[in-house]
Amino acid sequence: MYRFLLSRQWVILTLVSLLLIPTMIRLGFWQMHRYDERTARNQLVSDALTAAAVPVERLTTPGHTVTRDERYRSVTATGSFDTAREVVVRRRVNADETVGFHVLTPFVLTDGTVLLVDRGWIPADAASQTAFPKVPAPPGGRLTVTGRLMPDETTAASGIKDLKGLPDRQVMLINSEQEARRLGARVLGGYIAQTAPEPKGDTPELVGRPGSEDAALNYAYAIQWWLFSAGVPIGWVVLVRREARDRSQAAARETEQAEPATV
């Protein structure tokens, strides 16, 4: 009855089924690995955002590389903005996906060290992409700013090409080493995305809170792959039984047709 399983068609189908089962099981474990990674990252972000603000000098120094545990930590700094040497970061979007600039302003601390402050987003001038845009001024004089500590941007991490020959006072990446060379000053590693004080008139727009990754989706995908792997042998058995039944019925009909009619 099951001799058809030795046919070329069924041998191929069986081999494909046998390959699909471990492949789907591995894909399920890979999704669970992604779930664990995203859950851990979400926890790091949550811990950083809820931690009490500390002076920025406790977490970074000139040449320091901001670590995963330090990213998004709330920090404070006291000094004054150096608007004469601020730059804008090209091709940045706001919450509405509108292309514009981020305003990057050096913040000179009391000891002369410079902290890079991303003051937020401003729209691009539709008439000119080369002229330095009109940037609202920050508060003058000595003040304390608060922000989320961020690592230096690189092409490898962000995918943003560090184009050369840009218009004056425009950059592609926020990078403390590059800014240290441009400013000729000691610049703290990384930068901060300003959260306070809030700008007057809501301009520049402060960079939004980082969102959490949807780890639950990976968990659901893992369960889905494992259900698929369980469904493969069940489907194979169903197809085999259906094929055997169809062949048996076809053989019975042929036997009836071959028997001579009786009077």
UniProtKB/TrEMBL annotation:
It is found in: Cell membrane; Membrane. The chain crosses the membrane at residues 219-239. This is SURF1-like protein. The keyword Cell membrane applies. InterPro entries: Surf1/Shy1 (IPR002994), Surf1/Surf4 (IPR045214). It comes from Streptomyces asoensis. Belongs to the SURF1 family. Keywords: Cell membrane, Membrane, Transmembrane, Transmembrane helix.
